[in-house]
Amino acid sequence: MDSKTKEATTVLADPTAYADDDRLHPALAHLRAHRPVAWVDHEPYRPFWAVTKHADIMAVERDNELFISGPRPLLMPAEGDDVMKQQQDAGIGLRTLIHMDDPHHRDVRKIGADWFRPKAMRDLKVRVDELARRYVDRMREIGPECDFVTEVAVNYPLYVILSLLGMPEEDFPRMLKLTQEMFGGDDTEHKRGEGTTEDLLAVLMDFFTYFNALTAARRENPTGDLASAIANGTINGEPLSDMDTVSYYVIVASAGHDTTKDAISGGLHALIDYPDQLDRLRGDMSLMGTAVEEMIRWATPVKEFMRTATADTEIRGVPIAQGDSVYLAYVSANRDEEVFADPFRFDVGRDPNKHLAFGYGVHFCLGAALARMEMNSFFTELVPRLESIEFAGRPELSATTFVGGLKHLPIRYSIR
Questions:
Q1: Which domains are seen in the chain, by residue range?
Q2: With contact defined as beta carbons under 8 Å apart, do 118 and 229 qualify?
Q3: How many angstroms separate the first and last alpha carbons of the chain?
Q4: Which GO BP terms, alphabetically (predicted)?
Q5: How far apart, in whole angstroms, are the C-alpha atoms of residue 79 and residue 44?
């Protein structure tokens, strides 16, 4: 491996690189062109194969028997891998949908699936539109400047998903802080303590304590919300285990709003960066559907998932041994020059737009329809009312290797 390629692989194992597009994207472009399946061996992570081409990632996702989620569904330091495995072996570790494989994954997924189907989305749309209007009105009230991430983008999807769960509004700040600590373990601003494995476990324990109490309450008195559906869900007539129940809450309550926050704030950032596209969208609101997909591609909130080979195989001619870990670089796939014409151009009318920001195959994001609807409602409310907008300071991205996006977006604007 030449020095430039080896240097490019270090980017994938560096959380701060995801906070610096000028480092991240050139490295990924180099790997796509010269080493699309690259061996990465950098502490504190165990080695893995990085897959950076769109077609290869789809092929891995499609073959969910050859490439499974367990035991390493996401990139963590080796110490974290060991602790999580010990906990799961003891039946006390976090085990969300992203950790599971079929058939258990399929059965657990069904419990919440109806809440995200088209009929449920239609029923929810009035409420989502109302909340979109509320937060655009809030922008007008607090203007002419604000930090869009902390004052708007965080709160709007948080309110939607936790309302869907049926959680009391006074608990929303607690869920926000725990989510930021869980996904922000590599970020100096958001991590708890020193961001160690022990700190992460303490965050998860706080989640478990809260959701164990919620489960008990919903089993005693079901209230017709998503939390009740999860608490009283069954597989083959048997209730979910306590760990699976709590883990279900964690993935819905945290990823269900944090990724949408990243996509909304990343989308607004792009509209400011590309004022011609903002003008184009304002002049033709029928483009909102394609604009939302482009915002999601542009932001790609989930940076990666990992898979483990269950047998000897190969990817793009590169031998992959049984037990090897494979890193699916979604950020890279969504800039693949073979799939997207002029991939570094933000285009609100891009069609087709076969981005992989929601994953692919059996693990396709359960809440994708809700995220799309939230973004469509918000920008449909914002764009026609937006008279002017510009940056009022330097945008800042989170350091992460998993889920993240803008943590600060200072803007100056005028809204009708």
A1: 3-415 (1.10.630.10)
A2: no
A3: 56
A4: cholesterol catabolic process
A5: 8
Torsion of CA 385, 389, 393, 396, to 10 degrees: 60
Ranges of H-type helices in 274-366: 275-283, 288-299, 330-333
Of the candidates 382, 189, 159, which has an alpha carbon nearest to the alpha carbon of residue 281? 382
Contact 231, 249 (CB under 8 A): no
Beta bridge partners of 68: 308
How far from 13 is each of 28, 53, 81, 327, 352, CA to CA, in Å? Answer: 12, 18, 15, 11, 31
Cα–Cα distance measured from residue 50 to residue 35, given in angstroms and rounded to the nearest whole number = 9
Instruction: Please state whether the predicted TM-score (pTM) of the whole model is above 0.85.
Output: yes
Query: Could you give the CA distance from residue 148 to residue 79 in angstroms, rounded to a whole number?
Result: 36
Nearest to 358, CA basis, from 349, 369, 348, 350: 369
Q: Quick check: 94 and 183 in contact, CB under 8 A?
A: no
Residue linked to tokens 């919903």 = 218
Q: Which helix (H) or strand (E) holds 81?
A: helix 78-89
101: phi then psi, degrees, rounded to nearest 5: -125, 160
Summarize pLDDT for 48-82 with one digit per residue, the tens: 999 999 999 999 999 999 999 999 999 999 988 88
H or E element, residue 378: helix 368-385
Distance CA 64, CA 179 (A): 28
- Tokens found for residue 333: 């796939």
- Residue from 379, 405, 409 nearest 391 by CA: 409
331-349 tens-digit pLDDT: 999 999 999 999 999 999 9
Instruction: Provide the CA 328 distance to its chain's centre, in angstroms.
Output: 14
Neighbouring C-alpha atoms within 13 Å toward the C-beta of 412? 5
DSSP code string of 174-230: HHHHHHHHHHTTT-TTTSSTT--HHHHHHHHHHHHHHHHHHHHHHHHS--SSHHHHH
